[in-house]
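ok so dumb question maybe but i'm new to this and my supervisor (M.) told me to 'just get the structure for DNA-binding transcriptional regulator, MarR family' and walked off. so i did the thing. is this what she meant?? sequence i used:
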Amino acid sequence: MDYGDKLFWLSVLIQRRYAQLCAEYDLTPSQATLLCAVKDEPRQMAYLAASLGMTKNALSQLVDRTERRGLVSRASSEQDRRVIMLGVTPAGKVLAEAVFAETVKRLPDVAGNLDADGQRDLERLATAIVDASGVSASTSS
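this is what came out, is it supposed to look like this??
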């Protein structure tokens, strides 16, 4: 198995673990990701589409489904009424915080068979990759 194969299977493993966790909260992985992306502050829909790698149409459909569940709400930007902002409702905030906390707690288990040095190396590499990608939570909208 070459490097690309290993990255592919690591991706499958992480996605499978994340999907199992999301199902425990009666959310699809896409809904959970959306909630976590807006849990701390409202974000522009265009920013979310780009950050999540979705078309604007696909994001709108996801938002429609999540909004029907009372977990997110849309509002016009105060600076530009043409810009739509997406934020969590109080119920969405509680759910997003719970899903995020469980993800942060349980996802590292994918590296559970590594020794302490290996786990630190993986953390260092994951941090470098995410920081270089520009998709971290600290990216402003």
